């Protein structure tokens, strides 16, 4: 039957929507599963959204999740090497400053060209979103996350789906959703990367010196001695 009550309905005429017969019933609510499409790199996402634009599904509500490296437009934060920390500090108003782009998010996520059924809507990529964000002085990073709520298809790099910490911070819930992994033979490398961490020899030496100081000053010795031993063996 028609799914006008569906909380994630996209505003299309349900009778003309071929997928409406497959929608799951949850009590009285009908819900369409989202498709999470994972790719190896951000560059592949733009190729796929270009292909999507050429199909009959160009008007399907979508979003692209990516890092602040690609989507931050704040003049200071975007040029910083620790964008994530600076962004969080601004949003928390730690130094009495805030981010005007973040406060303009709704201007971007409610844009006609990003809303299906508007006549202007078609598949877009990160560059389109960033261009529009600059024009409206609104944050593309948080707008893309807001658009996820109503999206039928969500594009993102693999690690957003594989890494539990990223999933959690991005509010990605994969239960009862459809997951497509492009070029899935790369998954093993990606899984390894998401639980790996790289350190330089100089970082290890600095850590050992600090741990030496802790141990010689009797600061939580029993915790710091095994860590110092690990540093020494790695060096």
How do the helices and strands line up, and which of them pair or pack?
Blueprint: E1 24-26, E2 29-31, E3 35-39, H1 42-53, E4 62-64, H2 68-71, H3 83-92, H4 100-103, H5 105-109, H6 126-136, H7 140-147, E5 153-157, H8 158-162, H9 164-169, E6 178-181, H10 187-194, H11 201-216, H12 221-234
Helix pairs in contact: 11-12
Write up what this structure looks like.
Residues 12-26 have a biased composition (Basic and acidic residues). This is FANCJ protein. With 235 residues, this protein is an alpha/beta fold. The chain contains twelve helices and six strands. The strands form two sheets. It has a four-stranded parallel beta sheet with strand order 4-5-3-6. The protein has a two-stranded antiparallel ribbon with strand order 1-2. Strand 1 (24-26) and strand 2 form a beta hairpin. The longest helix is centred in the C-terminal third of the chain and has 16 residues, at 201-216. The chain is globular and about 70 Å long. The termini are far apart.
Number of strands: 6
Q: Which range does the strand content fall in?
A: 5-15%
State the low-pLDDT regions, or none: 1-26
Largest sheet: 4 strands, parallel
User: What is the radius of gyration?
Assistant: 23 Å
The arrangement of helices and strands along the chain is EEEHEHHHHHHEHHEHHH
Q: Roughly how many Å apart are the termini?
A: 66 Å
Give the fraction of residues assigned to helices.
Answer: 40-55%
Shape: globular
What is the strand arrangement across the widest sheet? 4-5-3-6
Structural class: alpha/beta
Overall pLDDT, averaged? Answer: 85
Q: Based on the structure given, which CATH architecture of the largest domain is correct?
A: 3-Layer(aba) Sandwich
CATH structural fold name of the largest domain: Rossmann fold
Number of helices: 12
CATH class of the largest domain: Alpha Beta
The CATH homologous superfamily of the largest domain: P-loop containing nucleotide triphosphate hydrolases
Task: Tell me the number of structural domains.
Answer: 2
